[in-house]
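Revision sheet: structure tokens.
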Amino acid sequence: MTSNPRLSPRRVTVAPMMDWTDRHCRYFHRLITRHTWLYTEMVTTGALLHGDVPRHLAFNDEEHPLALQLGGSEPADLAKCAALAEQWGYDEVNLNCGCPSERVQRGAFGACLMAEPQLVADCVKAMRDAVSIPVTVKHRIGIDEVSEYAFVRDFVGTIAQAGCDVFIVHARNAILKGLSPKENREIPPLKYDYAYALKRDFPSLEIHINGGVQTLDEVEQHLAHVDGVMLGREAYHNPWLLADVDRRFYGAPPTTLTRADVETEMAAYAGRRLAEGQYIGGITRHMLGLHKGESGARGWRRTLSDNKRLSKGDLSVFDEARRFLGADMPA
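Predicted:
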């Protein structure tokens, strides 16, 4: 399937999720799926230009293919940060035009940028001039009460003129005042047909859909209309969902690891990070959905959430957690 040049390498992706898709989460996901495209949490230009660059940009080599999502609205700053992304070895840089949080709005970026498509085009052009890796945009279909398809069509058309050819469409409006980020993921209605229409109107662009997708059957249904599907919280809370992505959507062999193998690899990974002085609870928290729906999963989660033991670096929690699942864990 991957030999077909018309198929995007981003056929299935895991969304950038603040406080969730850090490097430990991405390492975990990569054990389950080799081909799913992974995204970092959003990193602001200010954090990179005035903060600790290695803390924000360091990642494990195993995480490729990997995209850095940036938050910002100053073309020159974004260009500098895109160049950093390329220097650090990222495979893509993505501009956030979809986050509706008030904190992001105060920084004049995120979803509020959709009201200024020419500025977004300038940002994209500046980044593309600075790097050779792809520059992509993640956005909503509208903001506040602006819900006509023409709005997002014109937004995409303007940005495409700046050279962007990959758009990730969260198929809901962003309500900038009155709804929390969580409510913005749930209350505005999903309009997948808007993303489908974008693909019809811009057949040469890659159009990817995001929002509310929970099963691989739904992924398959969307792929009949668009180039890729981005999974969000379902991939985080039910990560074994990703185990069949490589076979089903990339024509590649599925992972040969069982869930037990993944746990063993993560225990070893946690040991390496512990030796560097890191808190292993920052690793185990991403694993809690691995046995979702299985007998013994509650006790397994409880053990891997024992902050007292995790803060002491007690790696025996991994072995103890497995006992709740029995000797013969299903793959």
